[in-house]
Amino acid sequence: MKQGTGLLDEMNHRSREVFRRVVESYLESGEPVGSRTLTRSLSEKVSAATIRNVMQDLEYLGLLDSPHISAGRVPTQLGLRMFVDGLLEVRDLDNSDREALDATMGPGSNDVGGVLDRVGAALSGVTQGASLVLTPKHEAPVRHIEFVSLGHDRALVVLVFADGHVENRLFHPPPGQTPSSMREAANFLNALIEGKTLSDLRGEIARQIATRRREIDALAADLIETGMAVWEQDADTSARLIVRGAANLLGQDGEAAELDRIRSLFDDLERKRDIAEFLELAETGDGVRIFIGSENKLFSLSGSSLVVSPYMNADRKIIGAVGVIGPTRLNYGRIVPIVDYTAQLVGRLIAERS
C-alpha cells in the first residue's frame, strides 16, 4: 500500500474534499488556506465552523499543519504524499510544452550529447524548475586502445569504440616507461578487446595479467594496471549529469527562509556525483517517480521535490534518467506528464542512434 493511502480510504467524502481543496489551493498559491476560502469552493454548502472542525481533524492525522498563527492550513509532507498517491489528477501534456521538447530533436540531433544538453534546457524552461539529465554510459565494444606518452610523468590512455566514439584519460604512468613497453601494453590489450565492452574488459584484463605475468614485461604490466585503473575509478561516473535552470528556483519565493532553502538546494546540486548515484537508484523503478522532501535524502535539508523518470535503449534496458527539481509546492499534475514525455523522447533518440 502506498504511504498514506490507508488514511485516505478511511476518510469520508467531506474530509477528502476538504483535504483535496486545501492541497490544490496551496499548490496553486503557496499560501495557507483558510476555512472561509473553502466555503466558496466546496461542492456542498457547509459552514466555516464545520470546515474548521474537519481541518482540525486532518491536522490531528498529520496531513495538514498551521505554519503561522493564522487560521490557514498547509499540507504536510505526509499530506502531499497522500495527495500525490491517491488524489492527483495528471493532466494531458500541453501542445506548447510538447512542441518545445520536440524542437530539441531538430537539426544537429546526431550529436547525442548536444541533444541531451538542449533537452535539459528545454525541460527547465517549460517547468520553470531545475532539470536533471543523467546521460547514458558508453557501453559500445572497444575497437582499439592506445597509450600516449606526454612526458616522463604524464600519459594518456585512449579508447576508440566500435561506433567511432573516442574517450581518453590523463594519468601518471609508473616510472621507467619506454616506447617499447607502451607498445607492448597496447598490443596486449588490443589482442583481448575483440567485441568486448569496457566493463567486459576490466575483469578479463585482471585475469590475463594474473596468469600471464611471466609472458609480459613487468613495466608493461604495471602500465596496463595503472592506465586501466583510471577507467576503473571513473567507470561509475562516466555517465554525465546535466543540470539546467537552477536559477529558475530563485524566482519561486522571496522570503528569507525560502532563499535559505534555495541556497541549500544549490549546495546539493553541486554534489553532482551524489545526485547521479541517486538517479541510478531511481532507475530501478519503472515510470515516473516522485520524491517529496526528506523522502529524497539528498535534498532533505532544502525541502525540495524531485520528479524523475528513467529512459531505455532499444533493448528496453534502463540507461539514464531525466527529472525536475523544485519546491514541494510543485504543480505535480503538469510536471509528471512533461517528465514522462521527455523520458520517452530521450529513449527514442538513444534507440535510434544505437
Automatic annotation (TrEMBL):
The keyword Transmembrane helix does not apply. This is Heat-inducible transcription repressor HrcA. Belongs to the HrcA family. GO terms for molecular function: DNA binding. One of its GO terms (biological process) is negative regulation of DNA-templated transcription. It comes from Salipiger marinus. Keywords: Repressor, Stress response, Transcription, Transcription regulation. HAMAP family: HrcA. Residues 115-336 form the Heat-inducible transcription repressor HrcA C-terminal domain. It holds the Pfam family HrcA. The keyword Cytoplasm does not apply. Negative regulator of class I heat shock genes (grpE-dnaK-dnaJ and groELS operons). Prevents heat-shock induction of these operons.
